[in-house]
Amino acid sequence: MYQCSKYYQDINFSRAVVEIYSILYDYFGPQHWWPAESPFETIIGAILTQAVSWRNVEKAIDNLREANLLKPSAIKKIQQDRLADLIKPAGYYNMKAKKLKSFVDFLYNNYAGHLNKMFKVDLPVLRKELLDVYGVGPETADSILLYAGKYPIFVIDAYTKRILSRIGYIPDDIVYHDLQAKIMSVYPADVVKYNEYHALLVILAKEYCKKSAPDCKNCPIMEK
Questions:
Q1: What phi and psi values does residue 7 have, to the nearest 5 degrees?
Q2: pLDDT digits (tens, 9 = 90+) for 106-145
Q3: From CA 27, how far away is CA 25, in angstroms rounded?
């Protein structure tokens, strides 16, 4: 198991979280997440990005854009097998086509197909509803809530766990909601900070804190 600088192990979690954010923001700059032209496109991306690189998701979304399918009514009408064919670059395309269809069915059954109605629902209620939709787990639900709905909720992913476990603050198998609560206690109800921090952790993990052979020597948070 890779271990990061002892500096972070000698200060409390809240202070470390604040310092790491400051370092990453200064180093990488604002990330302008989520890369989408509409809230519905953000939702599609959140579903398609499960277990695949964003580069492949972009190819699938481009296919949907060319077919004029980046709206709920279009996804509702298209045949599932045709939808699966269009999103093949995103992998697991049959399953993901079913997930997209399931989300749109939920949207129509509960909110007449209107995202603006859905995003007027209180956070705890809507989050529970989303988690009942086929194919929507905590990370996907929170991505939809934060990036499409602008709700104050922090997204936890494998990158976040990897970085903080290597620093020594959390066990590898920490429960999603436990880590989420710890980070949100540092920055209560801060949509902008949650958005930017998650994006910064993603780029840190991709460029330095890699799953294998991490570049610890050049990692910006190892400067301490």
A1: -55, -45
A2: 999 999 999 999 999 999 999 999 999 999 999 999 999 9
A3: 5
Q: Is the pTM of this model over 0.90?
A: yes
pLDDT in tens, 51-62: 999 999 999 999
- Buried-exposed string 23-39: b where 16+ CB fall within 10 A, e elsewhere: bbeeeeeebebbebeeb
Nearest-CA neighbor of 130 among 122, 116, 140? 140
How many residues belong to the chain?
224
Q: Describe the chain by its helix, strand, coil percentages, rounded to 5.
A: 65, 0, 35
Contact 168, 3 (CB under 8 A): yes
Angle, helices 39-48 vs 93-111, to 10°: value is: 140
Comparing CA positions, the residue from 78, 132, 83, 127 lying closest to residue 106 is 132
Q: Which residue has the tokens 């980046």?
A: 70
Residue recorded with tokens 């400067």: 223
With a pLDDT cut of 70, the percent of the chain lying above it is 97
Distance CA 174, CA 197 (A): 19
